[in-house]
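Async update (no meeting this week)

Hi team, since we skipped the sync, here's where things stand on the single-chain job. The sequence we agreed to prioritize is pasted below, unchanged from the tracker. I ran it this morning and attached the output directly underneath so nobody has to dig for it. Comments welcome in thread, and please keep replies under the output.
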Amino acid sequence: MKKSITSIVFLFVISNSIFGQEIKRKVIDLGGSGPYKAIAVREETLPDFVVYRPEKLKKAVKKEGLLPLMVFANGACANTSITHERVLSEIASHGYIVVAIGALKLANDENWESTEAHMLIGAMDWLVAQNANPGSDYCQSLDLSKIAAGGQSCGGAQVMAVAKDPRIQTYMMFNSGMGDMIMAGASTKSLADTHGSVVYIVGGEEDIATNNAKLDYQRINHVPVAFANMLDGNHGGTFNEKYGGAFARMALNWLDWQLKGQKDKSAVFLEPDLSDFPNWFMRTKNF
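Output:
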């Protein structure tokens, strides 16, 4: 795993006791590098998830239009996204709403439990309900036709377990691949359930998921698929780096192309123009 760069975090906390805190919101890396400073939020109607979003949501909507969405499942299928928060916050700062499995945490205490893939469906259901609720901050702000499902490691298997959901437009597999495994309710057969584009973002030969991702890439022949390999990324990629590092930048190129229709961002994948991604390898097909 790449060396960690300590994040700058601000917390707004309602304290129930000295030992028990209910964290309402959190700012990671000063809100990210994007045009909309991001916050991580605990929503009362969705306490077992974190919503990463522009702090000034209506300002972002006014400039961007309805915001595209991502639902995210964590490495180890864990009930915390704290190890991925730098990438997810960075994505949000560029005009996205990300809903990740697991309650909002102050710090990584390594105390976590396993989750189920259906929680991703619950996250999408919540987004649909919030968009229609006049009392919600998210009312008429979400583009429900533009949903990505992403996951890291075991979380990627959870994405494949719910791949049939018709609301998913694109699948993002970080350090993940099914290969010949059965995991989290998914298997190689789940690849056939994908009905939108797929990107694998992996970390080279030292990433235990790379070989499975290669197999998946070879086997997917019915939808567009990309294989983006950071040769020295390892299994942790750049999730620990400021602003999420190169993994966040690669993910944003994909999301901006696939969900925002920014065709110039396709150059990273289709040409491929990797001038901003030294020591990366790219393959694509079915586009």
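Quick observations from my side:
The first strand starts at residue 9 and ends at 15.
The helical segments are 57-64, 85-92, 118-132, 154-161, 210-219, 245-258, 267-270.
Reply here if anything looks off.
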